[in-house]
Amino acid sequence: xxxxxxxxxxxxxxxxxxSEEAYEQLKSDIVACVLRPGESLTEKQIGDRYQIRKATxxxxxxxxxxxxxxxxxxxxxxxxxxxxxxxxxEIFDVRGLIEPEVFRVAAANITERGLDxxxxxxxxxxxxxxxxxxVAFLAADRAFRLALAELSGNxxxxxxxxxxxxxxxxxxxxxxxxxxxTQMIIGQQKELVLACEVAEVSAIAKLARSQCLSLKKQVLxxxxxxxxxxxxxxxxxx
Length: 238
What we know:
By secondary structure, the chain is mainly α. It has helices at 13-31, 43-50, 54-66, 85-108, 112-125, 128-131, 134-150, 155-175, 182-197, 201-226; strands spanning 40-41, 70-73, 77-80. A three-stranded antiparallel β-sheet has the order 1-3-2. α4 packs across α8 (155-175) and α5 (112-125) runs antiparallel to α7. The N and C termini lie far apart (76 Å). 32% of the residues are buried.
């Protein structure tokens, strides 16, 4: 008598860990523009590059597709999500809505321990080894902003900011090819820490919004000067 086929086995802990590692590897390279916007990739190319199995690749690609960092295209495989001038505007417009509100809530709930956490995160940005690499610098800036966001006590708000920071960090990496934003971003961090220290709850949202607009303007100018955007409508920058 032939035994009935068993249901598909649940993924093992090792499978889950491999999938998570593949996801983080791919995401890191997409955000840092090691995998360039608009670049086409097949599952075989990804497998060869990262030495990971097809099933693991597909799981990671599914998550990245859901997050808008990769697009699946019939007969072409996968394409790293391209960036246009419209995309950049929308990314920073969304960040300009989410980040100020997250920081406002965080400032309203901040404690001395929370202040110490964000001061420490800001200090890590200034380490010599961090300042030598734009990848390390932007990762440290991201960690600083998420450390502040987590003080809001609202995990959903923090998660929303995390997602939009993925998108804006990718744009910043492209912008860094034409202009160095390091000192501008460091200055913004100092302003945010000071606003938290003096408990300017109502002012911190206004400050964060103003900072986002300033950064957006600088990034757009750098991208346009360096011709790093695809399908850009230059007139919309007026």
